Amino acid sequence: MSTVEAADVLIAGAGPAGALLGMRLARAGVRVVVVDAAPSAMPRLEIVSPSCLHLLEAAGAGHLLDDATLARPCAGIRRYHPAGRVEIEDFLRYPGGRGFVVDRTRFDAALRAQAAAAGGRFMAGSVSRVVRREDGRQIECRLSSGTGILAPVVVDATGRPAALARRLGARRVAKERLVALCEGRTQETASSAWLDIAWDRAAWRYALTGPTGVRERWCISIHPMPGGQRADASSARLDRAAGEGWIAVGDAAAFDPVTSQGLANAVSTALYASTLLLSAGGLDAESARAYAQRVAETFDRSERARRLVYGGEPGNPALDSRIPAR
């Protein structure tokens, strides 16, 4: 017979946003359960932009960037325009003055270890069913293991699928439908310390080198591509990132594939959500609306910034990929 256990907060997903939120709540004495699905089998590198450094410090994870097995310094971004011009965005020009490339598999594992050490309870599996109790004050999440977790607040940290929020009535609004294809991973001894981005009518391409010297090359296009490891890279957000008894963080709330702000978004939403949930008022209708508005405004700013850099170029594939919201 399946059991039902109680928690103060259930977090579905143990990526950077879910793990950091779980750590901060656990340190504050909150009974938090983090439902941890199997990590992605796809190795992946990701940029930590200068804007993310103070966020990681505030979240209690900045020291991880000092570990050379997790992070490699990144000097900035080199953009190779279709007309042949090369634009250099040096991270020294920004507050923080530096960036990093992190190995997401190792970095995420380190964040989960911190959350567990803080007292967060991790349960393997995924949320397979969500039921709001009749009194409206509790949400029961049935896990793939059969166990039920009953909590007044649930957090969607499931990434781009936003599986929990969508079960609770939110809709995913896509701005561009894009597909990412890993074109190769090679071991290099004298590799670039830059994120290199190039684009033409067909696709964006970017390459970066991680802490172990592996250089990844990715292609992002509106058209499905054969072979290799592929991932959904659509620019999208939820129509509302919070509601009665639930809140979405990280990629579940909003995702943009090109602005190098994925980790910054994960950390900032985790910080905001933890502050909100630990406040005297907690997650009520007003705070949920304010959070959802902030997520939407941040996403819109990111979209505008992307178009300032790439939108005027005839080679931008997103110019041809506008779709209606759904």
TrEMBL record:
<dbReference type="Pfam" id="PF01494">
    <property type="entry name" value="FAD_binding_3"/>
</dbReference>
<dbReference type="GO" id="GO:0071949">
    <property type="term" value="F:FAD binding"/>
</dbReference>
<feature type="domain" description="FAD-binding">
    <location>
        <begin position="7"/>
        <end position="178"/>
    </location>
</feature>
<dbReference type="InterPro" id="IPR036188">
    <property type="entry name" value="FAD/NAD-bd_sf"/>
</dbReference>
<dbReference type="InterPro" id="IPR050816">
    <property type="entry name" value="Flavin-dep_Halogenase_NPB"/>
</dbReference>
<dbReference type="InterPro" id="IPR002938">
    <property type="entry name" value="FAD-bd"/>
</dbReference>
<protein>
    <recommendedName>
        <fullName>FAD-binding domain-containing protein</fullName>
    </recommendedName>
</protein>
